[in-house]
């Protein structure tokens, strides 16, 4: 049985995280975060979580 996700919704979708990872190769973390409208720390946390999962 799969339980519903509890808590605050994520700021970035899975697709946005993949786009951010690609952009981060050519831009700074701050620029990528501004593009998606999130804080730099939020962006880095999502990217780190994605890398741990793969």
Task: Write a concise synopsis of the structure shown.
The protein has 54 residues and is mainly alpha-helical. The protein has helices spanning 14-24, 29-36, 40-53. Helix 1 crosses helix 3 (40-53).
How would you describe this protein?
The protein has one domain. With 54 residues, the protein is an all-alpha fold. Helix 1 runs antiparallel to helix 2 and helix 2 packs across helix 3. The mean pLDDT is 92. It has 3 helices and no strands. Pfam families: HTH_7. InterPro entries: Homeodomain-like_sf (IPR009057), Resolvase_HTH_dom (IPR006120).
Radius of gyration (CA) equals 12 Å
End-to-end Cα distance, whole Å, is: 23 Å
Oligomerization category of the chains in this entry = single chain
Structural class: mainly alpha
Give the low-pLDDT segments: none
Q: What shape does the CA trace take?
A: globular
Per DSSP E runs of 2 or more residues, the count of β-strands stands at 0
What distinguishing features does this structure have?
single chain, 54 residues, mainly alpha, 3 helices, 61% helix, 0% strand, globular
List the helices and strands and how they pair.
Blueprint: H1 14-24, H2 29-36, H3 40-53
Helix pairs in contact: 1-2, 1-3, 2-3
């Amino acid at each position: 049985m799969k339980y519903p996700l509890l808590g605050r919704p994520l700021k970035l979708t899975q697709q946005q995280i993949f786009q951010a990872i690609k952009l981060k190769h050519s831009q700074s973390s701050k620029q990528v975060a501004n593009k998606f409208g999130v804080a730099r720390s939020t962006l880095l946390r999502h990217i780190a979580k994605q890398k741990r999962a793969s």
